Structure formats: C-alpha cells, structure tokens
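name: query_chain
kind: protein
chains: 1
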Amino acid sequence: MKLNDWIRRAMAAAVFALIALPASAQFKVGVVNLQKALQETAEIKQAEADLKARFGPRQEEIAAMEKEIAKLNQEAEANQSKYNEQTMAELVARLQTRQRQYQRNSQQLQDEVNRERQDILSRVGQRFSEVVRKVAEEKGLDMVVDQNNLLFSKPAMDISVEVTAAYDKAYPPKK
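structure:
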C-alpha cells in the first residue's frame, strides 16, 4: 500500500474517531494539505530537479526516437506506391524495430523514474509524519487530518505552511 494511501486511511479513521467522541470534550484539530505541503518542501523540489537532470537526456533520446518513428511512418505512407516490395518490407521492418526499441526504452525509463520517486516519497513521507507530529505537539493539537479527506475546514485550522517550513528547517536539501 502506498504511503499516501496509508496516511489518508489513518486520517479518515481519526476523523471517524473524533465524531464518535462525546461532544462535550474539547479537541484542537489541525488541517494539512499533505500533497501540497510535501510538494512545497525544498527537498522534494531539489529531488525533482535532480530527477530532471538525471533522466532528461534519456527523455530527449526517446523524444528523438519518437520523431524518427513518425518520419518513417510518413515515408512508408507517402512512398507505398513508389517502393518495390522488398524496399517496402525493409522499411516496415526498420519501423517495427524502432517502435519496439521505443516502447522498451520508454518503459525502462518510466520504471526507473517511478522507482526513484517512490524511494524519495517513502523517505520524505516518513520524516514528514514526524514533523507533522512535532508541529501538532507544539501547537497543542489533538489531531491533524489531511485536507483532502475533509468536506470543510476553516482556513485558520490549516497548518500546511508551518509544517512545510518546519520540515525544511529540520531536513534542508543536500546540495
């Protein structure tokens, strides 16, 4: 199960627990937009830039390969009546080979990028939960819920910016 799914389910369970408690108890609740707060951390921004730098050249190669395939397709369609059978068969074979390479390279790149992102999110998500807990304790909150699991909350309850700032302070990005 993904970390975000786990966090959302835990937050939903916490909201249901809050509803089940007696109305006379006083609870302080904070709200965090987890997705936005995570994306706004300096570490995630740095990691995204690093991923772009690392995988950018391969993405450009794949884009060039895609253009080459389109050009071969266009050539095959435009010259279908002009080329003899053997020349057309060679062109189609070359086109199919390039398409397979393109699909294989695209899938490999996507798998690697997804793996890297998942590693980053796993590492950051665990530390982010600790920071949320720490900010909640500092503010005297009894519960923090994800904004995406709420129908309504007052803007004053949102601690997303504070959590992001606390995370950036505790875990500055490595350069």
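note: The chain has five helices and two strands.
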